[in-house]
Amino acid sequence: MSFMDKLSANVTNAGKIVSQKVKNMSDASSLTSAQNTEKRNIQDTLMEIGKLYYEKHKNDPNAEFAQQIASILTSEKRIAELQAEIELVRAREPELVIVPETPKPAQPSRVPTAMVCMHCGRSYAANVNTCQTCGQALIPQYGTFQNKPAPQPVAETWYTTGQEQNPAGSTQNPAASEKTDGAAAASRFCAYCGKPCTQGQIFCAHCGKKL
User: Fold this and answer.
1) Are 69 and 81 contacting, i.e. CB atoms less than 8 angstroms apart?
2) What pLDDT was estimated at residue 160?
3) Mean pLDDT, to the nearest integer, of 98-110?
4) In angstroms, rounded to a whole number, what is the distance separating the alpha carbons of residues 170 and 174?
5) How much is the pLDDT for 175?
6) How far, in Å, CA of 92 to CA of 119, rounded?
7) At what angle do helices 3-57 and 66-90 cross, to 10 degrees?
């Protein structure tokens, strides 16, 4: 036999060996599966026999397997008790904590102390709504809450009948009085709301209209 014939025979034999081993493993696996099926059948049958025996002799105190039957009865009773506790737990409501009602302290009313124009930065009295220079709406400014100081006593000044119009020591300038009278005479009124306006004022401080 030549070398090539020997090599071919060896390869063929090796393939047959591998194929036979695979077939053997497959056949053994099938037989093992069938064997396990029969074992499960035996277990199921024994369990069925045990159930039938239990149902038939569970009330018989003289039964052959009385101890095992008593253990099963005790477990069944405990299972029923646990099921009742489970139902109570599922239906249990949460214990809510009562929230006390705390009344909110009354806040003192805040009154604006001044009105400020955010466009030009001018400040006005609290009863003015519109800037007299640029006509923009004013923003109220509030002071901080604080205790008001106690009023200080005011010294009284006594005048005689002749000093009431021009008290002694008064340094009022007659020219300034004339200037004040002239400014009062030169005051004007808004044509829309009728409120008084001063000279040089471009917008009404009450309605915001252009003068």
Assistant:
1) no
2) 44
3) 77
4) 11
5) 47
6) 65
7) 90
